[in-house]
Amino acid sequence: LFPTAAVGVALWAQAQGFGLFHLAGLSPAVAGVLGFLVLDFAIWAQHLAAHKIPLLWRVHRVHHADRDIDVTTALRFHPIEIVLSMLFKIAVVALLGIPAMAVFVFEVVLNGMAMFNHANFRLPLALDRVLRLVVVTPDMHRVHHSIIHRETDSNYGFNLSVWDRIFRTYVAQPRDGHDGMTIGLAEHQGEEPARLGWALALPFRPLRRRSKDQ
């Protein structure tokens, strides 16, 4: 439902000639490629904000509370975050006038890549090294789910890995190695994160101040 909302807004902007891309007279192909890249950067920036702004982190930590990262983690978001994320995406689509087809392709790729980079498997190291030059791999994103603060505050990308490299938020490997790292939130390592009611109430629980090693 929510991804189709962004496509619907794109169709409306297209029909009305609304948005910067329409005003600039960009061809559909150029607008589509630029739109995809801008949307990918916007999602990266939104993810960064979710870690840096305490009010947003309250909601986003529901995603990070999962202690067993796998494809289901890609779907583990609080309803509040889902709504806020879609409103932000709709605003970007409308302001730029991104072509509907580009928005549709982006949504398909984003959802597919989110499941891929949360998947509980490892690629051959040589293949991983090549792929992560362009896209986010499972090993690269797994670092982001570490309980260590400086690792959680890294590797924000879902699709393209370039943004983390440009803005120096890229961390190649976890401090304790993939076999030794702990996933989740340091303050919630029990069984609570597996309970739906607990997860829905988490944004309203007190925040614990995190150290760089936690």
The major sheet is characterized as: none
- Give the helix proportion (percent range): 55-70%
Listing every helix as H and every strand as E from the N terminus to the C terminus, the arrangement reads HHHHHHHHHHHH
| Average pLDDT number | 93
**How many individual helices?**
12
Percentage beta strand: under 5%
- Shape by Cα distribution: globular
Strand segment tally: 0
Strand pairing plus helix content: what structural class? mainly alpha
Total discrete domains: 1
**Unreliable segments of 5+ consecutive residues:** none
Describe the structure.
The chain has twelve helices and no strands. It is globular. By secondary structure, the chain is mostly helical. It is 58% helix and 0% strand.
List keywords for this structure.
214 residues, 12 helices, 0% strand
